Amino acid sequence: MNFLWLACLVLVAFGSQAEAAGPTTVPSLRDRQRAADLSRRASELIDQHKLVEAESTLRQSLEIIPDHPTRLYNLACILAAQGKPEAAVDALERATEAGFTDFTFLIHDHTLDPLHDLPRYQALLDRQEEVRHHAAEHGVAALRAEFGDGYLYEADEQMKFIFAASVDAPTLALLKHDLELQANTLWATLFEHRSDEFIRVVVPSAADFRRLVPMTHVGGRYDDDTRTVIVQHLGQFMAHEFTHALHAADQHAVGQEHAVWISEGLASLYESAREVNGALVPGDNARMPVVRIAARRHTLIPLDGLVKMPRDAFGARADLAYGESSCLMLYLHEQGTLRRFYDEYKKTWRADPTGHDALERTTGQVLAELQKSFADWIQKRPEPVAAVRTNGPMLGVRFAEAVDGLRVMELIHGSPAALADLRIDDMLVALNGKEALDRKTFDALLAVHEPGDEVTIKIRRGKSYLEKTLILGRRSAPAAPR
Prior knowledge:
The protein has 482 residues and is of the alpha+beta class. It has helices spanning 29-47, 51-64, 69-81, 85-98, 103-108, 119-126, 128-147, 169-189, 206-212, 236-253, 260-269, 288-296, 303-306, 311-316, 318-334, 338-347, 356-363, 367-380, 416-419, 439-447, and strands at 152-156, 161-165, 199-203, 220-223, 228-231, 274-276, 279-281, 393-394, 397-402, 405-411, 427-431, 434-435, 454-461, 464-471, 473-474.
């Protein structure tokens, strides 16, 4: 067969959906990595036009994880390309039973053209809504079995999101709105491909989060094995990890695993994004001050080193590496070249997975020149307002971050918050109509005000929501809490 590439097989990227259809034994981490390595090897064999070997290799991967939706779909593509249409439909049916729901991709994948006249293929297309609904029900049932009846569960079959959250109904509705806005923005401006499976969004109780994520320094993560976002707090943690989920789907669709600086830079870019005319616009986030200091001291990580950093080295310099990567993405965004860079990177990924060449082609500068332009841009930016300054505005409250807001732990006697009748255990969720579900977001919203400004805060007290208007005080030496 004379062809250059099977579009469907670029989905063989990485990760494993071990729990998609609930196998009786969950494979070990070592076995899952082995399965992922085999599927990557199958992709390489397709590049070499070695279909028989690719099929054998992918089947070895499926022996380890029999119900991986994407790999079953890819097996269908290999079989179709080898002139085995009935076997290909068998694999397609198994893929959809396991959770594959991207019928748009399936219909337009030319590798599957030989199947179009088969009654079983047409019957599968006729069951699109049924397949999607089954996958949603299965996903909800799996989460309910894990977390029990104390959570709210919902499935959005059109967006392909499934929620399990230990929050109240208004908070879940707000979360759904925020994630739909974020997804639609990123699909319109950056990521070409949506997820072929449902993305699970879990907002657990504090106890469940620590059970699932025992590392005390980690506030959230995206598990590509199960397409699951899990966060300790709403707000910036959710924006970061949800971007990872959307980015992973785009990588899966082109068979790539992007450099860590790109993955973390894009995820950090949208942490402090604001809504403008129904879309999110990224801006300075809490990582910017560290990068500004490094730029002034000429201690930024050289770009030719940043783009080549392996994940462990990136994590070892997390404060600067994350910040510099997100600022570089913001620089490209403000230059109007972020989408052009990202598309160029995907186009040339196999030749240069670091992104070095794509950066130079997109900006028209060698990296040494870009380093200078980037550092100058950082230093010329206005100081980001991220924290309340000395003698700045204050409510007179000590907060603790909770899952879905800021819990009042202490009140300063006579402070604006005390005079407005805030109480211990009230949950602050918004300032002047803007979400303030985490400390960084709240501090940034408060810092733009002056002492004496009138503001409105929204709190949750028990199951009720209240709005309080108060006059901001001035920060001074701490007073005794009451």
